[in-house]
Amino acid sequence: MTIDLLTAFPELLSGPLSHSIVQRALLGNHAEIWLHDLRHYTSDRHGKLDDIPYGGGSGMIMMAQPVFACLDQVMTYRKPMTVPRRMFMSPQGRPLTQNLVDELSREEWLIVLCGHYKDVDARVFERDSWEEISIGDFVVSGGELPAALMVDAVIRRIPGVLGDQASADSDSFAGGDLDAPYYTKPEVIEGLRVPEVLLSGHHAKIAQWRTEQRRLRTTERRPDLLPPDKE
User: Does 131 lie in the same domain as 74?
Assistant: First the structure.
Protein backbone atom coordinates (compact mmCIF):
# COMPACT_ATOMS: atom_id res chain seq x y z
CA MET A 1 0.00 0.00 0.00
CA THR A 2 1.12 3.52 -0.80
CA ILE A 3 -0.22 6.39 1.31
CA ASP A 4 0.36 10.02 0.32
CA LEU A 5 -0.50 12.57 3.01
CA LEU A 6 -1.02 16.20 1.96
CA THR A 7 -0.52 18.49 4.93
CA ALA A 8 0.52 21.96 6.06
CA PHE A 9 2.12 20.50 9.20
CA PRO A 10 4.07 17.31 8.36
CA GLU A 11 5.79 17.38 11.74
CA LEU A 12 2.46 16.48 13.36
CA LEU A 13 2.47 13.24 11.38
CA SER A 14 6.13 12.24 11.33
CA GLY A 15 6.15 11.20 15.00
CA PRO A 16 2.98 9.10 15.20
CA LEU A 17 3.76 7.35 11.91
CA SER A 18 7.35 6.37 12.65
CA HIS A 19 6.94 4.06 15.63
CA SER A 20 5.42 0.77 16.76
CA ILE A 21 3.24 -1.20 14.31
CA VAL A 22 3.37 1.46 11.58
CA GLN A 23 7.17 1.47 11.68
CA ARG A 24 7.15 -2.34 11.44
CA ALA A 25 4.94 -2.15 8.38
CA LEU A 26 7.26 0.36 6.73
CA LEU A 27 10.41 -1.62 7.50
CA GLY A 28 8.74 -4.81 6.28
CA ASN A 29 7.74 -3.19 2.97
CA HIS A 30 4.06 -3.78 3.64
CA ALA A 31 3.37 -0.08 3.13
CA GLU A 32 5.06 3.19 2.30
CA ILE A 33 4.00 6.59 3.61
CA TRP A 34 4.91 9.89 1.99
CA LEU A 35 4.38 13.29 3.62
CA HIS A 36 3.86 16.19 1.23
CA ASP A 37 4.29 19.67 2.71
CA LEU A 38 1.71 21.93 1.08
CA ARG A 39 3.89 24.95 1.78
CA HIS A 40 6.28 23.68 -0.89
CA TYR A 41 3.50 24.00 -3.47
CA THR A 42 2.03 27.42 -2.75
CA SER A 43 2.52 30.20 -5.28
CA ASP A 44 2.65 32.76 -2.47
CA ARG A 45 6.23 33.95 -2.01
CA HIS A 46 5.80 34.00 1.76
CA GLY A 47 4.62 30.37 1.86
CA LYS A 48 1.09 31.40 2.78
CA LEU A 49 -1.58 28.69 2.60
CA ASP A 50 -4.66 30.43 3.99
CA ASP A 51 -6.72 33.56 3.42
CA ILE A 52 -9.92 35.21 4.60
CA PRO A 53 -13.21 33.79 3.24
CA TYR A 54 -15.20 35.55 0.54
CA GLY A 55 -18.42 36.91 1.99
CA GLY A 56 -16.80 37.56 5.35
CA GLY A 57 -16.94 35.54 8.52
CA SER A 58 -14.48 34.43 11.15
CA GLY A 59 -11.59 32.05 10.62
CA MET A 60 -9.16 31.46 7.77
CA ILE A 61 -9.59 29.17 4.76
CA MET A 62 -6.93 26.91 3.20
CA MET A 63 -6.42 28.01 -0.39
CA ALA A 64 -7.11 25.68 -3.32
CA GLN A 65 -3.98 26.44 -5.35
CA PRO A 66 -1.39 24.62 -3.19
CA VAL A 67 -3.71 21.61 -2.84
CA PHE A 68 -4.21 21.44 -6.61
CA ALA A 69 -0.48 21.80 -7.27
CA CYS A 70 0.48 19.12 -4.74
CA LEU A 71 -2.19 16.67 -5.83
CA ASP A 72 -1.35 17.12 -9.51
CA GLN A 73 2.33 16.44 -8.88
CA VAL A 74 1.61 13.33 -6.82
CA MET A 75 -0.77 12.03 -9.49
CA THR A 76 1.80 12.68 -12.22
CA TYR A 77 4.63 11.04 -10.29
CA ARG A 78 2.59 7.89 -9.62
CA LYS A 79 0.87 7.85 -13.02
CA PRO A 80 1.49 4.14 -13.74
CA MET A 81 -0.32 3.17 -10.51
CA THR A 82 -3.99 2.38 -10.14
CA VAL A 83 -6.55 5.12 -9.45
CA PRO A 84 -6.12 6.35 -5.86
CA ARG A 85 -8.78 6.57 -3.21
CA ARG A 86 -8.76 10.20 -2.06
CA MET A 87 -9.73 10.86 1.56
CA PHE A 88 -10.31 14.21 3.29
CA MET A 89 -10.36 14.27 7.09
CA SER A 90 -13.42 16.27 8.14
CA PRO A 91 -15.86 16.30 11.09
CA GLN A 92 -18.62 16.48 8.47
CA GLY A 93 -17.57 13.20 6.85
CA ARG A 94 -18.54 9.55 6.98
CA PRO A 95 -17.71 8.02 10.37
CA LEU A 96 -14.56 5.93 10.44
CA THR A 97 -15.59 2.41 11.47
CA GLN A 98 -13.79 -0.92 11.63
CA ASN A 99 -15.62 -2.04 8.49
CA LEU A 100 -14.33 1.01 6.61
CA VAL A 101 -10.83 0.46 8.02
CA ASP A 102 -10.85 -3.12 6.73
CA GLU A 103 -12.10 -1.91 3.36
CA LEU A 104 -9.32 0.68 3.10
CA SER A 105 -6.67 -1.86 4.11
CA ARG A 106 -7.33 -3.66 0.81
CA GLU A 107 -6.60 -0.57 -1.29
CA GLU A 108 -3.31 -0.15 -3.16
CA TRP A 109 -3.11 3.63 -2.97
CA LEU A 110 -4.58 6.22 -0.61
CA ILE A 111 -4.22 9.99 -0.83
CA VAL A 112 -5.19 11.76 2.39
CA LEU A 113 -5.75 15.51 2.59
CA CYS A 114 -5.33 17.03 6.03
CA GLY A 115 -7.23 20.27 6.26
CA HIS A 116 -6.29 22.99 8.69
CA TYR A 117 -7.63 26.38 9.72
CA LYS A 118 -11.44 26.74 9.58
CA ASP A 119 -11.94 24.92 6.29
CA VAL A 120 -10.56 24.23 2.81
CA ASP A 121 -11.64 26.16 -0.29
CA ALA A 122 -14.69 24.25 -1.57
CA ARG A 123 -13.32 24.23 -5.12
CA VAL A 124 -10.85 21.56 -4.02
CA PHE A 125 -13.82 19.20 -3.80
CA GLU A 126 -15.55 20.57 -6.89
CA ARG A 127 -12.58 19.82 -9.13
CA ASP A 128 -11.76 16.34 -7.77
CA SER A 129 -13.66 13.61 -5.98
CA TRP A 130 -12.80 13.21 -2.28
CA GLU A 131 -14.36 11.01 0.41
CA GLU A 132 -14.83 12.93 3.65
CA ILE A 133 -13.94 10.87 6.73
CA SER A 134 -14.65 11.76 10.36
CA ILE A 135 -13.21 10.23 13.52
CA GLY A 136 -16.03 11.59 15.68
CA ASP A 137 -18.50 14.36 16.32
CA PHE A 138 -15.98 16.90 17.55
CA VAL A 139 -13.53 19.39 16.04
CA VAL A 140 -9.74 19.45 16.39
CA SER A 141 -7.22 21.97 15.07
CA GLY A 142 -6.49 20.10 11.85
CA GLY A 143 -6.72 16.84 9.98
CA GLU A 144 -3.25 15.58 10.84
CA LEU A 145 -4.03 13.70 14.05
CA PRO A 146 -7.25 12.19 12.64
CA ALA A 147 -5.25 11.11 9.57
CA ALA A 148 -2.60 9.49 11.78
CA LEU A 149 -5.32 7.54 13.61
CA MET A 150 -6.86 6.36 10.37
CA VAL A 151 -3.51 5.36 8.86
CA ASP A 152 -2.54 3.44 12.01
CA ALA A 153 -5.87 1.60 12.03
CA VAL A 154 -5.60 0.75 8.33
CA ILE A 155 -1.97 -0.37 8.31
CA ARG A 156 -2.36 -2.81 11.22
CA ARG A 157 -5.02 -4.63 9.21
CA ILE A 158 -2.72 -5.29 6.24
CA PRO A 159 -1.91 -9.03 6.20
CA GLY A 160 1.56 -9.75 7.54
CA VAL A 161 1.98 -6.52 9.50
CA LEU A 162 1.08 -7.97 12.89
CA GLY A 163 3.00 -10.91 14.26
CA ASP A 164 -0.27 -12.57 15.29
CA GLN A 165 -3.14 -11.73 12.97
CA ALA A 166 -5.54 -13.60 15.25
CA SER A 167 -4.96 -10.86 17.83
CA ALA A 168 -6.39 -8.25 15.47
CA ASP A 169 -9.24 -10.53 14.46
CA SER A 170 -10.41 -10.67 18.09
CA ASP A 171 -10.10 -6.93 18.77
CA SER A 172 -13.10 -4.81 19.64
CA PHE A 173 -15.37 -4.24 16.60
CA ALA A 174 -13.65 -6.99 14.57
CA GLY A 175 -16.67 -9.20 15.19
CA GLY A 176 -19.11 -6.34 15.56
CA ASP A 177 -18.87 -6.24 19.35
CA LEU A 178 -16.42 -5.27 22.11
CA ASP A 179 -13.56 -7.49 23.22
CA ALA A 180 -13.41 -9.44 26.48
CA PRO A 181 -11.22 -8.50 29.50
CA TYR A 182 -7.70 -9.98 29.69
CA TYR A 183 -5.32 -10.80 32.57
CA THR A 184 -1.63 -11.60 32.95
CA LYS A 185 0.83 -12.47 35.73
CA PRO A 186 0.71 -12.55 38.73
CA GLU A 187 -2.40 -14.60 39.51
CA VAL A 188 -3.14 -12.39 42.53
CA ILE A 189 -2.30 -8.69 42.96
CA GLU A 190 -3.61 -6.56 45.85
CA GLY A 191 -6.19 -9.24 46.57
CA LEU A 192 -7.53 -9.28 43.00
CA ARG A 193 -7.50 -12.72 41.40
CA VAL A 194 -7.51 -13.90 37.81
CA PRO A 195 -10.85 -15.65 37.02
CA GLU A 196 -10.47 -19.38 37.68
CA VAL A 197 -11.67 -20.39 34.23
CA LEU A 198 -8.62 -18.71 32.65
CA LEU A 199 -6.34 -20.88 34.79
CA SER A 200 -8.17 -24.09 33.99
CA GLY A 201 -6.49 -24.90 30.70
CA HIS A 202 -9.90 -25.87 29.32
CA HIS A 203 -9.88 -24.08 25.94
CA ALA A 204 -13.57 -24.60 25.18
CA LYS A 205 -14.64 -23.17 28.53
CA ILE A 206 -12.24 -20.25 28.14
CA ALA A 207 -13.63 -19.51 24.67
CA GLN A 208 -17.17 -19.66 26.03
CA TRP A 209 -16.27 -17.33 28.92
CA ARG A 210 -14.74 -14.80 26.53
CA THR A 211 -17.78 -14.93 24.27
CA GLU A 212 -20.00 -14.27 27.28
CA GLN A 213 -17.77 -11.43 28.43
CA ARG A 214 -17.82 -9.84 24.98
CA ARG A 215 -21.60 -9.91 24.99
CA LEU A 216 -21.78 -8.55 28.55
CA ARG A 217 -19.39 -5.68 27.84
CA THR A 218 -21.15 -4.78 24.63
CA THR A 219 -24.54 -4.82 26.35
CA GLU A 220 -23.29 -2.59 29.17
CA ARG A 221 -21.09 -0.19 27.21
CA ARG A 222 -22.28 -0.15 23.59
CA PRO A 223 -25.77 -1.62 23.28
CA ASP A 224 -26.06 0.19 19.94
CA LEU A 225 -23.70 -2.43 18.48
CA LEU A 226 -26.07 -5.30 19.25
CA PRO A 227 -28.50 -6.60 16.63
CA PRO A 228 -32.05 -5.30 17.35
CA ASP A 229 -33.35 -8.77 18.19
CA LYS A 230 -30.57 -9.38 20.75
CA GLU A 231 -30.72 -6.22 22.81
Answer: yes
Sign of CA dihedral 193, 196, 200, 202: negative
Neighbours of 120 (CB within 10 A): 23
- Residue 67 and residue 38 in contact, taking contact as beta carbons nearer than 8 Å: yes
Q: Domain range holding 89? A: 2-155
At which of 124, 155, 186 does a domain end?
A: 155
Task: Indicate the pTM of the whole model.
Answer: 0.90
CA distances from 225 to 94, 118, 203, 216 (A): 17, 33, 27, 12
pLDDT in tens, the chain (231 residues): 999 999 999 999 999 999 999 999 999 999 999 999 999 999 998 999 999 999 999 999 999 999 999 999 999 999 877 899 999 999 999 999 999 999 999 999 999 999 999 999 999 999 999 999 999 999 999 999 999 999 999 999 999 999 777 777 777 888 889 999 999 999 999 999 999 999 999 999 999 999 999 999 999 999 999 988 654
Specify the CATH number for the domain of residue 148.
3.40.1280.10
Give the dihedral sign, CA 15/17/18/21: positive
CA distances from 38 to 27, 60, 63 (A): 26, 16, 10
